[in-house]
Amino acid sequence: MLAVISQHWLMPVLAYENGHLSTGNALASPGWWIVTWLTQVMPMVFFAGGAANFFSFRSVKSVNTWLRSRIARLLVPVVPLAAVWLLLPHVLIGAGLPEQPVLMAGKIAGQLLWFLAVYVLVVALTPVMFKLYRRYGWRVIGVLGACALLVDVLRFEFSPAIGFLNALFVWLAAHQFGFHYADGGLRMRSAWVSSGLAAVGFGLTAAAVFFGPYPASMIGMPGAPVSNMSPPTALMMSLTIGQLGLWLTLKPAITRFAERPMATSVLQWCGARFMTLYLWHMPALVMTAGIAIVGLGFATPTPGSPMWFAVAPLWVGVSGFFLVSFTRIFGRFEFRRPSGAASEMSLGKVVLAAVLSAGGLLGLAAQGFISPGNPLGPVLCVALVVAGLLVVREKSAPKAEAAQGIRTVPVQPVVRHEGARVLSRQGS
User: In the predicted model, what is the mean pLDDT of residues 246-268?
Assistant: First the structure.
């Protein structure tokens, strides 16, 4: 998560003149695409989510209760974000701020909700994927990889819209790798084996870029005809293998670092607030840019220049201050247990909640929290998310957890101290 936040804060190249905020991407600089092979960590996010879900799901006695609790805990932190950003752009424009940068801020605040939309669906599919894993093992990843390649062929030959099917195939595959890791299937005999896995993954990625239709950057670039991320291409699967091999190679050193008292405290603090940090780190960037770029007339130095490196720590520090402040205010929602979330509910209602909320989140990711051409659009999207949350919060006939032996598991999929603990739990 720290890698995700740092990349998002350092990527923008911003300048403001005559009421217009212009944007660029530092990683579009010549040769910087190679950085994205390490900093595009979404494959590892879904991998870690798979490991965490495996650990918690394998011991539950009520699948629907597990799903209900998991989805509810994912959606609750979205409510304060939506409450603030549905109103804030209109207030700022009404107060006389230039419209164009405010509209951009409203879009940026919601664009990363795509991850949450996909992850809600992945969580909803976890029981099915768990059964498939138990029965077919590695063949599940093979089938998902074949589907992802087929989608890419159809995408490049016919319609780019077909590529959005890979939002499930690619990230479900990364999630399945997490199952294998949690179940002990990725124990490496030596660093040479894990290094070889990294070489295979990154080698396949390089070959696909050199000989195939894929761009070299693992993030979307301004003006690029194809993006490896939006929607994801099958290239993300080879990147997953490369990053996984690299992480397994470095795992002993990472574990030693994570076991230091200070690192442990930071990981525990961040892990307990994972969703809040993710949801509010872009609004923190908006605050920094609003003050420095729009308010004070500062412009981002040329990426890679001495001035850029000199300013970067201050930029990150100010953004970090705002993020910590937001987390202190809104992090309490992440700890609030949704009422009735531990009681039984029909599978149909759980699926309905997942579909409603994922649809609303995808809509917000596409258009943001303010859309001049469709002013009711963001409101309807938020309504879908709230409807999904209300479905899983609906009180139904409770079944005592103690009688069933059910333990409600915290939803945080990726790094709840598990940044070091979940990912080092096996093979140590």
Answer: 89
Secondary structure of residue 421 in the 3-state scheme: coil
CA distance 144 to 135: 15
Spatial distance between the Cα atoms of 269 and 246, rounded to a whole number of angstroms = 26
- Match 């993710």 to its residue by tokens: 278
Structural tokens at position 168 = 């499930």
Element holding 190 (H helix, E strand) = none
**Which of 71-85, 193-207, 232-246, 410-424 has the lowest average pLDDT?**
410-424
Structure tokens at 263: 């690192």
Tokens of 162: 């077909």
* DSSP line for 235-291: HHHHHHHHHHHHHHHHHHHHHHHHTSHHHHHHHHHHHHTHHHHHHHHHHHHHHHHII
Output the pLDDT for position 188: 77
The CA dihedral of 274, 261, 55, 393, to the nearest 10 degrees, is -30
Backbone angles phi, psi at 15, to 5 degrees: -150, 145
Spatial separation of the C-alpha atoms in residues 259 and 269, rounded to whole Å: 14
Helix or strand (DSSP H, E) at 384 = helix 377-393
**How do residues 359-409 score in pLDDT, each as one tens digit?**
999 999 999 999 888 889 999 999 999 999 999 887 654 444 433 433 334
Which residue shows structure tokens 């990364």?
Answer: 174
E strand or H helix at 25:
strand 20-25
Distance CA 394, CA 172 (A): 28
Assign 17 to helix, strand or coil.
strand
